[in-house]
Structure formats: structure tokens, C-alpha cells
Amino acid sequence: MVRNVGLNVDTIRLSGSLKNLRKELELLRSLEINLAEIPPAGLHFIFGGKLVFSKLKEVLEVIRDFPFEYTIHMPDPVNFAINREEDFEIASAVVEFAKIIDAKVIVYHCGSQPGIEGFDLEVQRLSLLADIIGDKNIFIGIENLDHDIEWTLNICKNVGKEKVKLTIDVGHLFLHCNGDVSKFIEQLELGLPYAVEIHFHDNFGKPANLCWKDIGEKIWFAYLYGVGDLHLPLGMGVLPLEITFELINKYFDGYVVIEINDLNRFQEDIANSIRLIRKNCFCG
């Protein structure tokens, strides 16, 4: 069951501005959405790995005007698979923020890769972070980047704590499968029963590294060629939506966040993505 459908608040769009935060949350309200994914890196209340409470108070004053449900996206560079103490300090500050706003999920980008050291360290630190959450009803969702679901699920199972689950980014997964629908379905069937959140956006199943570098790394060219992690509204790419919705209804219990980063191009298309999910998924 889909417990709620929301939209990401993008780090770059915020750029540290409380005015922009309010504008983003007003957009959600206008779309009749009451779930927002907040990126602490886009705001201005963590400095040097520590919460700055005077700045946090200003952020909370805005958020409290919008009694939504919230999830949080851990800053992208935080990587528990490398021995960098600052990462855990930042993550701990994010957990404290999550407790204050009663967030449902903290999304963490998986840092380790098969064949590279760091798996055990990542498991250890995720376990410690779950301990910091304690008895709060907050989950950590390990998000796949360029990973098989087997890998992120293995991390989840090795942590072995109820609060640590998966965030399945279906756009990333479709790219990782090179647009192979059969493999994509297999991966979803494997991971969805263990997921607490889904990131939903569309693309053409063509990884950026399969094309010329000057195209894949520049989003305005990538749109033209249909390559890479485009974060398109649903239906603008070739993601197999019908079977994805079927598998969500069969296996999933959690939150869905639509990730659209480019509002200049796609703000008018968000409502249709929301409509598609609400029409095709069992929503609580």
C-alpha cells in the first residue's frame, strides 16, 4: 500500500533560502500534496557537522506552517563506506532534525560497491545510526544508485535492524538495468517487500556513460539525447509504468516521492505524475 504520495524539495532550488523553502511547500499545497522530502543540504542549519539551533529555528518556523508528512534526503556526499568521521557527524545531525519534525524516512545513498572495501564499515555505521534513532518511528531507507538490488538488500539484511530498510529509486534501477524490462521487474520483485520508500521519475533506460561525456554530463543536452538520470515526469520516458504499478500494489508498503528536479521545464507536468500514481496504486 502507498501510505502517501509526495514530491522532492530540491537542494539546488532551495540554495539556503527560507523564501524558496516556503515557495516549494506552497507548490505542494497547491498540488494537494501533503508529503515533502526535505534536503538538509539545501538549507542552512548544519555547519561543520553540527546543528546550528538559531538557524534550525528559522527553518522550523516555515515547516510548521505546513503540517505535512516529511521524509528527509541525507546529503548526497555522506558515505558510510569510507572512513570519514564527518559523514557520521552530519548523519547524526540529520537524525536529530528528523526527530524534531517527526520525519517518516531518512533516505541514504548507498556508498559501497561490489569489489570495493567498505561494506562492513557501511553496515556498522548504519547500525549505529539506527541506534541513535532509538524508539522514534523513523526509518532509514538505503537508496540504490548504480546498484543491483541484491547489493543494497544485502546491506539491509546485514544491519539486521527493523528501522533499516530500502528506498528503491525506480529511475536509477531502470538505468542500471540498461532499460532491460525483464531484469527491472526481477529487481523490483526482489526489493519491494523490503522497501519503505520509492523514488519515482522517468527516463529512457540509457545510462549517461554509454554516450559522449559532453552530452551525458550536461542535463540540457542529455534531455535532447534521452540519456542518463533525467528525472522526467512519469510518462515522458519509457519506464514500464503499468507493471511497476502492479508490483507496487503487490509488494510495497510505504511512501512514494516523485523526484522532479527541473521545475523550469516540468512544473506543469507534476500533477499528471501524481494523478497516475493515485489512479493506479492502492493509496492509504
Structure, briefly:
Residues 26-278 form the Xylose isomerase-like TIM barrel domain. This protein is of the alpha/beta class.
Give a written overview of the molecule.
The chain is an alpha/beta fold and 284 residues long. 44% of the residues lie in helices and 17% in strands. The strands form two sheets. An eight-stranded parallel barrel has the order 1-2-5-6-7-8-9-10, surrounded by five helices. It has a two-stranded antiparallel sheet with strand order 3-4. The longest helix has 17 residues, at 85-101. The mean pLDDT is 96. Keywords: Isomerase. Residues 26-278 form the Xylose isomerase-like TIM barrel domain. InterPro entries: IolE/XylAMocC-like (IPR050312), Xyl_isomerase-like_sf (IPR036237), Xyl_isomerase-like_TIM-brl (IPR013022). GO terms for molecular function: isomerase activity.
Key attributes of the depicted protein:
single chain, eight-stranded parallel beta barrel, alpha/beta, TIM Barrel, two-stranded antiparallel ribbon, 284 residues
The major sheet is characterized as: 8 strands, parallel, barrel
Q: Could you say which structural class the secondary elements and strand pairing correspond to?
A: alpha/beta
N-to-C span: 7 Å
The oligomeric state is single chain
CATH-derived topology of the domain at 2-199: TIM Barrel
CATH C-level class of the domain at 2-199:
Alpha Beta
State the CATH superfamily name of the domain at 2-199.
Divalent-metal-dependent TIM barrel enzymes
The topology string of helices and strands comes to EHHEEEHEHEHEHEHHEHHHEHH
Please work out how many helical segments DSSP would assign: 13
Shape: globular
| Radius of gyration from CA coordinates | 18 Å
Strand order in the sheet with the most strands: 1-2-5-6-7-8-9-10
Mean pLDDT comes to: 96
Assess the beta-strand content as a share of residues: 15-25%
Helix content: 40-55%
For the secondary structure, the number of strands is: 10
Pick out the low-confidence regions.
none
CATH architecture classification name of the domain at 2-199: Alpha-Beta Barrel
